[in-house]
């Protein structure tokens, strides 16, 4: 990981490497300067300069600018015969000489727009042969930095002593990567950032799907294992040259990071200590393995253990769950002690009372969790359960059976009890499991994980359930689409949306819980009051709590509705009105039916009839849970059939939408998607199917001689 202590000293050297791989950052596909990326670079340098960092820029691009100008000049001065036989080879030194002024003019213009002054310093390897040059160089740079001027270095290719600057690697430095390393040492820089056209150093060519980014480079580990691909379309040395320069810088005490110059804020993120690119450090060999390796190993181990779990008998899997329940009962005091430490830290940190309440584990809660695990253990074994059995042809039988998904990644916030429920469901369904809980409940999650895994037999493996402790590891896990089979985020809308945007792994969950209750004109208003109050007040922060109350227009200003609204207000519910409700009841007007007010807010609106209510829900709802209160069976049937939500109720509170209340034992979450599982997801939602075919030597052979019967067979 990136240590923030790296970034707190004096000089920070950012290399915008040029003619090598870094030139791909400076230039576009057509060889011209990429002004957008240059502008983003200058903006980041300006921000760091404003924050008090002393930044030096090592850039290239002079040869590219010069080549473009000379090509154009040569073209307009060419005869027709010249155009028929174009000679486009241009001398690199001439290109550099022509391009230097143009490149610096671009930097000067960009920095001037940001109210920053820049300066140009051209050097050659011959300069560094003079023993006094280093002292003079430091004096000049320090003077510029004191004046808040950005020194911009570049190798002076126009007068380089090397015969072929693109190819000759002799001398003290031979490209801008090695120049950056040399300057970093000479100027006592604290950090060297090298911008490339890829995210960092990969274990193989970045285009290879099997290649994985290396977040921390360990020379002893990665030096001989990395397979470098083709170098960039422009430049001298490619990634191999950057790695060599970064290794050299690190060995001299200057940490280096190779990152993408295509990301507009990569430099700022590095300076904040975020895990960006590949870090090179002279003490990396004594650090722990990189997180990318750890997360992959954790996921692979969970998958291997899940296969061992599936090989057990139903009774053996049941015994594991019963042992977990017993272990929870036996360790109540220890669990409460660790939980109280989390609660104290959360209160000291100023967390909201509602979050602290969700974190709390009392003795009764732990006992209840143990009982729910026993209930899951007593459920019918779902693994290898046959769903369909068909005789395809004589002595050829097809079976469709349940089987585990594989490895589940569950990301949840603030509720340690969720860890227990999810672990039990994963074991019952034969899946491996990776868990990432909120940092505020870390001690609670850790002790619960320890208690649960302590009773998992060695024949299965303790690594069946892995506990992810660092938020940084989530990004790595979300890339493991070849190992992890399903991601289930449990938490805020923001968490769910972020997870969906960051992974190719299927995600099961819901981003919003906008639940409606519709009171039809034939509703029993006493029943309506009970249901609405429960749906809103029983647990306002729950995803199945009512957000919008729809009321038939004929009930407007009736005693029954007035009484209901008064009861809501007594419970602290703040009512906002849609256009009609706002005009008639004078309640505050809602900005949008898809609102994001507090959990104690509720939107009220009047509708013409049941069809209007259905249309409103299908337009503004989140397909979670919606309810109709009515004594009219026809209206109820229409509502139940046409509302397109995961759960649709008649005369029952939306708070019933819960795996435990539905008899699923527990739930890993509630899904509003339409593929795989929908609604509260219990054991069956963590399974998929596979096809088994039992034959006696049959072949297709163009279907000659095969008589298909397709006869349904009894499952037993």
> Structural class of the secondary elements?
alpha/beta
- What is Rg? 33 Å
Distance between the termini: 56 Å
Helix fraction, binned, reads 25-40%
Low-confidence stretches: 1-11, 15-22, 232-236, 288-293
Number of extended strands: 24
Largest sheet: 8 strands, mixed
CATH level 1 name of the largest domain:
Alpha Beta
Beta content comes to: 15-25%
What characteristic shape results from the CA principal axes? globular
Keywords:
716 residues; alpha/beta; Carbamate kinase; Aldehyde Dehydrogenase, Chain A, domain 1; Aldehyde Dehydrogenase, Chain A, domain 2; 3 domains; eight-stranded mixed sheet; six-stranded parallel sheet; ATP binding; EC 2.7.2.11; G-glutamylP_reductase_CS; Delta-1-pyrroline-5-carboxylate synthase
Structure description:
- The protein has 716 residues and is of the alpha/beta class.
- It has three domains: 16-288, 3-Layer(aba) Sandwich (Carbamate kinase), CATH 3.40.1160; 295-387 and 402-501, Aldehyde Dehydrogenase, Chain A, domain 1, CATH 3.40.605.10; 515-667, Aldehyde Dehydrogenase, Chain A, domain 2 (3-Layer(aba) Sandwich), CATH 3.40.309.
- The chain contains 24 helices and 24 strands.
- The strands form five sheets. The protein has an eight-stranded mixed sheet with strand order 3-4-2-1-5-7-8-6, with helices on both faces. A six-stranded parallel sheet has the order 17-18-16-15-19-20.
- The longest helix is centred in the N-terminal third of the chain and has 22 residues, at 92-113.
- The two termini are 56 Å apart.
- Mean pLDDT is 84; it is low at 1-11, 15-22, 232-236 and 288-293.
- Residues 21-260 form the Aspartate/glutamate/uridylate kinase domain.
- One of its GO terms (molecular function) is glutamate-5-semialdehyde dehydrogenase activity.
- Its EC number is 2.7.2.11, 1.2.1.41.
- In the N-terminal section; belongs to the glutamate 5-kinase family.
- Residues 294-556 form the Aldehyde dehydrogenase domain.
